[in-house]
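queue> pop job 88
queue> type: inverse folding (structure -> sequence)
queue> payload:
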């Protein structure tokens, strides 16, 4: 395998992995919001902190979706500018990278928040968070 073929193979793997990560985070975030709405009646029995955590987790989920969309927009702008040999390509790429990092951090916070709620409810906690 030549160096060029190796680079092409690694690039294809990178694209596949990134595509999987994007689908996973977007699907989980989009799916969690309607699922969470089904538990609103139980959340109403929580104390203030529990309600706050539930709302925060769903805000994180919405932020994942919004950051994905904005990141995709700037990714397209970056590609278009690079193809046109414009100097804005790097700037757009940096903005896209910031939104991609935002997606990752919001997704992690969303998962941790849901895990905290699940742990509390399944470990014998009362509805008085």
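queue> result:
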């Amino acid at each position: 395998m030549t160096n060029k073929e190796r680079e092409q193979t690694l690039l294809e793997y990178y694209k596949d992995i990134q595509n999987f990560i994007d689908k996973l985070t977007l699907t989980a975030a989009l799916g969690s919001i309607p699922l969470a709405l089904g538990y609103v009646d139980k959340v109403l029995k929580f104390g203030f902190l529990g309600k706050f955590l539930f709302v925060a987790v769903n805000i994180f989920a919405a932020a994942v979706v919004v950051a994905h969309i904005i990141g995709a927009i700037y990714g397209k702008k970056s590609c278009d500018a690079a193809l046109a040999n414009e100097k804005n390509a790097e700037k757009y790429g940096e903005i896209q990278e910031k939104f991609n990092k935002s997606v990752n951090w919001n997704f992690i916070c969303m998962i941790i928040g849901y895990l905290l709620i699940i742990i509390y409810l399944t470990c014998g906690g009362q509805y008085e968070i």
